[in-house]
């Protein structure tokens, strides 16, 4: 299975992206002005990131986990934990690590400038879940790699986590209208679109809430959970002031945006 890691990840990514795009078209949550016109830039960012990461670290986080496993490095091997314990614990703790990383990228100014590219999307849909600056993706790979080594996470669990993280990022950013009851039930476990959309509000107190990507429990545990936006799902303003113009959504502008100070 691990030998087919790129195929597994690409297949899961394409399937979830297509499913979300179709569902968004059928059941849109908010009206959009730009809509699909933002997709070339958002997809361009993820394509550049994928090329860069394959050139710099072709084995990715799974490769790092394989390297650690071959040397018996990490917390789980040290305690002799069986696979059936180490695998789910790895997925859980790596998701916690990504939650912490997300908060860090909001708290440190130089990291926020990179992460701001993601927040500067004036509309949210599945493509927003791909809109990350290549420099942020490289740093994220390093953080996840260190986490995998420290835990001694099984490579199979790391692959499952990477696929899950990508899929839930596409889902949580989708412009998808869901029945309120279904949203409440799913939100007990997963970050839903209505929950994560609050994190993209222009109101600072809302931007600094709902940091989770996959599991919703971390926001509840660490006190960053917000159930509803102040202005409602249809009234809230998304994006970052000064970066909402159509021209600011061009790929070249997104790549140099971290060099620009806050407006």
TrEMBL record:
<keyword id="KW-1133">Transmembrane helix</keyword>
<keyword id="KW-0472">Membrane</keyword>
<keyword id="KW-0812">Transmembrane</keyword>
<feature type="transmembrane region" description="Helical">
    <location>
        <begin position="74"/>
        <end position="98"/>
    </location>
</feature>
<dbReference type="InterPro" id="IPR006694">
    <property type="entry name" value="Fatty_acid_hydroxylase"/>
</dbReference>
<dbReference type="InterPro" id="IPR051689">
    <property type="entry name" value="Sterol_desaturase/TMEM195"/>
</dbReference>
<feature type="domain" description="Fatty acid hydroxylase">
    <location>
        <begin position="90"/>
        <end position="224"/>
    </location>
</feature>
<keyword id="KW-0560">Oxidoreductase</keyword>
<protein>
    <submittedName>
        <fullName>Sterol desaturase family protein</fullName>
    </submittedName>
</protein>
<feature type="transmembrane region" description="Helical">
    <location>
        <begin position="6"/>
        <end position="23"/>
    </location>
</feature>
<feature type="transmembrane region" description="Helical">
    <location>
        <begin position="43"/>
        <end position="68"/>
    </location>
</feature>
<dbReference type="Pfam" id="PF04116">
    <property type="entry name" value="FA_hydroxylase"/>
</dbReference>
<keyword id="KW-0443">Lipid metabolism</keyword>
């Amino acid at each position: 299975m691990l030998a087919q890691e790129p195929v597994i990840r690409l297949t899961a990514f394409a399937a979830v992206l297509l499913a979300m795009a179709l569902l968004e078209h059928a059941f849109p949550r908010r009206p959009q002005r730009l809509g699909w016109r933002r997709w070339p830039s958002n997809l361009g960012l993820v394509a550049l990131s994928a090329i860069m990461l394959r050139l710099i670290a072709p084995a990715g986080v799974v490769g790092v986990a394989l390297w650690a496993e071959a040397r018996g490095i990490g917390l789980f091997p040290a305690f002799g934990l069986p696979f059936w314990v180490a695998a789910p614990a790895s997925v859980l703790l790596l998701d916690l690590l990504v939650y912490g990383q997300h908060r860090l990228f909001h708290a440190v100014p130089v990291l926020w400038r990179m992460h701001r590219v993601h927040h500067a999307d004036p509309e949210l849909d599945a493509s927003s879940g791909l809109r990350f600056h290549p420099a942020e993706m490289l740093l994220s790979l390093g953080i996840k790699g260190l986490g995998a080594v420290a835990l001694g996470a099984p490579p199979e669990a790391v692959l499952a986590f990477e696929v899950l993280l990508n899929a839930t990022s596409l889902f949580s950013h989708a412009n998808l209208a869901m029945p309120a009851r279904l949203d409440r039930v799913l939100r007990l476990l997963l970050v839903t679109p209505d929950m994560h959309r609050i994190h993209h509000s222009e109101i600072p107190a809302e931007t600094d809430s709902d940091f989770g990507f996959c599991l919703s429990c971390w926001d509840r545990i660490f006190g960053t959970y917000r159930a509803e936006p102040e202005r409602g799902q249809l009234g809230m303003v998304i994006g970052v002031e000064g970066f909402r113009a159509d021209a600011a959504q061009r790929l070249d502008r997104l790549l140099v945006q971290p060099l620009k100070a806050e407006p």
